[in-house]
Amino acid sequence: MSASAHGELRFSFFTYLLAAAFLAILAAGQAPLSAQEKSTATADQSSAASADPILKAMREELDRSKSQLKMDNVAAPYYIEYRVSDVDQYDAEAAFGALRQEQRVHARSLRVVVRVGDYKQDSYYGPGTGVVSFAPLDNDSIALRRELWIATDRAYKNASEALASKKAVLSQYTADQPFEDFARAPALQMIGPLVRLDFRPEPWKEAIEKATNLYRGDAKIESLNALLRFHAVNQYFVNTEGTSTRQGYAVYSLNLSAQTQADDGMELGRSPYFVASTVSELPSQEKLLADTAKMLGTLKTLREAPMVEEDYRGPVLFSNDAASDILDSMIGENVLGIRPKPGASARTVGEFSSNYKGRVLPTFLTVVDDPTMKTFQGKTLVGSYEIDEEGVRVASLPVIKDGMLVDYLLGREPIRDFSDSNGHGRAAPGQAPSPSIGILMLQAKETSSPDELKKKLIEMCKEQSKPYGYYAETLVGNNPRLLYRVYVSDGHEELVRGAVFDELDTRTLRNDLVAAGNDPLVSNREGAVPTTVISPSILFGELEVKRTDSKNAKLPEYPPPALIEH
């Protein structure tokens, strides 16, 4: 599996993205520009914005709305933003050696937000969070402006109603909100190059047909499919603060999925996938066939593998692939600065809501989110971006330093003690921005090689008089999909099935993680927005492994059809 692959697929992004689509920057380390250079750069960006027909139409309609939008007995908007998202997506899926779907979708959506009130308290609540509509596919400025006009009118009316509802809700609470509703942000001008898909579909369709045809080597394979998903997104953004941006990204992914059953009915699956910013980084046809064959071989071994019967508590080693899942779910989801519901006293909605300036990891570990990185160890990072979907520039941000939680990832919705955005307001096409990771990386002061970590695992098991420890290669959620016993006697590994981790949570992560590897893996991920997690292998000194209590499924009532036509 390539270093840009993430171990096991957990959800389908295709449906989500289709639904969403339809409904000059300083480089790190660059010397500061002089006043004259800044003026020239701003002029160049303004000229580029004027040359883009979509941005030009958006800016013209925004200026018109700002000057004319006012209802009787309702305050004029203090802030308006327009975002147009252009999505070009190609999908092809093969199953059992045959192509079963192929489509190319081109769609544009627009989203309009009108805020009534002021930065301290405004109408961003319920129906006031924005209006989404289609946008014309060509660059007809009159058609686009008309769509923006209708959406802006609706958004303004919604905003006036939302502000009244919001005040009614807040009046139920005696304490004043200790932060503003909307963070201020400086005006930005950034016109990036348009991003386009760059591939030929024929060789990729052939590759997934051949890969899924390998099911013929194992009659007990109940499903085998492969999905190509290539999409390019170009986002256009303007607001009444003076920000105008155009930026885009491309994501190329290839997903494998297979299912089988053991003789006792236990359902067993594998779903490795590969994600990158360029199509050339996906596996070649030869490598895809080899990876598919390896996946099918693992499923055969899993069918014959022994069940985990005992309750084990002891050392467990996680591969860098499995560790990236843990980092994403237990750290990435809990360092988001998401405002809780009105009246709630918590700082955020995650498990770290009350851990600010407290220890959440061992002191030898630091976690940084740095979307400004474009590559790592030769791999493109799909989580890379420069300005978020709320028009705020992003920078490298330590969120956990020497084990201590020192910051949250924030958009323009402040939370207690954090009044400003740090550029993490991300959004899928047509959707409302929300705090999200960009490129989340786990760093360790002291590291060990994978072989050294395995030796540490064995030594710890010896000290505890255990005949074996456990090694988790891949996870689904926070439970193992590929789990091996590592025997103390000679270090050999035995694949097992039917296990779950008990008490693998943020407390265990804080107290029982004892070592990290020197083998960071790039795990590019698709989701509402593309993200990247970079993690090395990690070793826990104590973790409980026990048998799953899930019931096995029934085996098929009759055999599959013959693999050869009569």
Number of strands: 26
Principal-axis shape: globular
Distance N to C terminus:
38 Å
Gyration radius, rounded:
26 Å
Q: Mind summarizing the main beta sheet? A: 9 strands, mixed
In DSSP terms, counting alpha (H) and pi (I) runs of 4 or more, how many helices?
A: 9
The portion of residues assigned to helices is 10-25%
Uncertain stretches = 10-33
Output the structural class.
Answer: alpha+beta
The fraction of residues assigned to DSSP E strands is 25-35%
Mean pLDDT comes to 92
Tell me about this structure:
With 566 residues, the chain is of the alpha+beta class. The chain has helices spanning 13-22, 35-51, 53-68, 141-170, 201-212, 285-304, 320-332, 450-463, 506-511; strands at 5-6, 79-95, 98-115, 131-134, 189-191, 221-239, 244-261, 267-270, 273-276, 312-318, 365-369, 375-376, 379-380, 397-401, 404-405, 425-426, 434-435, 439-444, 468-476, 479-487, 493-496, 499-502, 513-516, 521-525, 531-535, 538-547. Strands 1, 2, 3, 4, 5, 6, 7, 8 and 9 form a nine-stranded mixed β-sheet that branches. Strands 10, 19, 20, 21, 22, 23 and 26 form a seven-stranded mixed β-sheet that branches. A hairpin with a 7-residue loop joins β16 (425-426) and β17 (434-435). The two termini are 38 Å apart. 46% of the residues are buried. Residues 10-33 have low confidence and may be disordered.
